[in-house]
Design brief:
homodimer; two-stranded parallel ribbon; 14% strand; 52% helix; 10 strands; eight-stranded mixed beta sheet; alpha/beta; 2 domains; Isopropylmalate Dehydrogenase
Chain lengths: 338, 338
């Protein structure tokens, strides 16, 4: 029931996701009266879907604290509960991000060794796709959080993206050791001294995010959220100016018509729907957040991300790596701090 | 002597700046043997320029602390000294940013009421150009710093951009009052309660930077530096993909040729050289930092920014506004904090 165009987009997206994963089974939490007719119209989906009627829903502007008090029986709350009880392998929602994170933490708990989950997403670069986290779950982070995010991002890049030895960078305002603030300098020292098999490349800058300098870029949720939205905004601005440029003369209109095929390829390449499906990493269960304004194709992509995470056993791998981390890096950090 | 292509770019840029401001007079600090032949080749510039031979220069990778100890007699140090002594109205440099800020603070001091200067720049948006600060002078800021940045940005937008009642936003990860961290919530409260004639619009997000939602966007130097570089990187990525798209087929190559004029207009509109010339706001003197990798056109633009700031008496206006601020907002902040 979450997102700007629910439940239509969710149902159409689920139907589309079946194209890539024929054996999916869906539990659809929400208002049966709204969902049932949409399912009926899709025979293929109807055979693989089950409606769990849930009259309550989380409002888009509800505060996490309110949702924790009153939202446990909402469609969002019960969908997360299904993951906890093993009736679902993952939950995908286009609803209220803060509520989804708060309920997920409360119901599923974090993985052993993780203090706070992070929101991660794939980003397009000049090289290949990279993993960027945290995108806004934690407005303030300490060094230990950042080290944990680095481990989670690295495991994700290795297991889900299939990169052999993923490189990891910490986002900073310069690449020299002295740049930034104490928190990221401590996190960098911990990662540098660690014997974990992480290819830590030190500090990276804002331009490295799109250059694809490292396979994983780690930052706190404040900086990550701003960076993600600035990237979205700049791409939108560029598209806006490009459209104006093509409309500006008769010749350029003809030029546009001739280049249309190539420009569509460009559009697809930067299509935000391709990157839809932010991962809540560090939870004891797979939770994927779809953009609230996406369409069926974008929602289907978020479902695909969930399937990838489940099939690759990403959480189990993160737990294993964090077991080693706990024994080592975190102790080092604590020793330095005291 | 600063930047990737000094002194050639600096001299050619100065020559170009004369086109807009015919009555400029330049003091050129640096190695006379390198500069003199370049000046000789430009009769117009030669009449309006004077070389101050300075054998020492600040190295691009020198640390601010080293420069404060040994860099006072460098070309950068003496150029700033000339502003202090009233022999120059402004200093423009393409050299080491940290060194320029450290020397400027040491020699010129900050304006009354300003604890820390900020780096501000113009940014292109869907609407009109906006002022964005701090771009990296202060990796960590308190609420008082942010309030001072808001005042400086507002005065700049009013006096230099000529905007009647510039609107001001604080960069955050959401627009609701509870988003972000204590520091920006305190700064927002201080600006909201202030009786200063500032059109404060509360929190803005990363996408608002390119939408041009407010005329001034204020943030700490860490977030601002990352945001600026992510915007640069994303524009570069888009250009890269666009070039690939046009090259991808015979038809799209023809399309490119027909659209070339319009695409050049687009390129000019987003040309980073147009936005070259970051302002060190809050100093008792006008200091402009040019991008180190810019060309003559970019450097000329940085000189133009310096001329604008001097002609509009921006520093005097900032001082006047901050006088009111000191009496009011800062006291409120201190009362809340204690």
């Amino acid at each position: 029931m979450g997102g700007d165009h629910a439940p239509q987009v969710v149902i159409a997206g689920a139907d589309m996701a079946r194209a890539r994963h024929a054996d999916l089974h869906f539990l659809l939490f929400g208002d049966e009266a709204a969902i049932a007719p949409l399912i009926k119209a899709r025979a293929g989906l109807e055979r693989q879907a089950e409606i769990v009627h849930t009259p309550d829903r989380v409002e888009p502007d509800a505060k996490p604290s309110q949702v924790l008090r009153h939202g446990r029986k909402s469609s969002m709350g019960l969908a997360i509960e299904a993951v906890k009880e093993g009736r679902a392998a993952a939950v995908v929602s286009a609803g209220n991000t803060g509520a989804l994170m708060a309920l997920s933490k409360f119901v599923l708990k974090t993985l052993p060794g993780i203090e706070r989950p992070a929101i991660g997403s794939l980003m397009p670069t000049r090289r290949r796709e990279i993993v960027f986290l945290d995108l806004g779950a934690n407005a303030e982070c300490d060094a230990e959080n950042l080290v944990q995010f680095a481990v989670m991002g690295e495991v994700f890049a290795r297991e889900v993206l299939g990169i052999d030895k993923p490189t990891v960078g910490l986002l900073n305002i310069g690449t020299e050791d002295l740049k930034g603030n104490d928190t990221i300098r401590q996190a960098a020292a911990a990662l540098r001294e660690s014997s974990l098999p992480i290819e830590f490349r030190g500090f990276v800058e804002g331009t490295d995010l799109t250059n694809g300098t490292t396979d994983v870029v780690v930052t706190d949720g404040f900086t990550g959220n701003v960076a993600l939205k600035v990237a979205e905004g700049t791409a939108g601005l560029y598209t806006h100016f490009l459209r104006q440029a093509f409309k500006s003369s008769f010749l350029s209109r003809i030029g546009y018509l001739l280049s249309r095929g190539a420009l569509n390829t460009l559009r697809q390449r930067l299509d935000p729907r391709r990157y839809n499906g932010a991962m809540f990493l560090g939870l004891n269960g797979v939770v994927i957040k779809s953009h609230g304004g996406t369409d069926a194709l974008g929602f289907a992509n978020a479902i695909n991300v969930a399937v990838d995470l489940v099939q690759q056993g990403t959480n189990q791998r993160i737990t294993a790596e964090l077991g080693k981390l706990e024994d080592e890096v975190i102790r080092g950090l604590k020793a330095r701090a005291s």
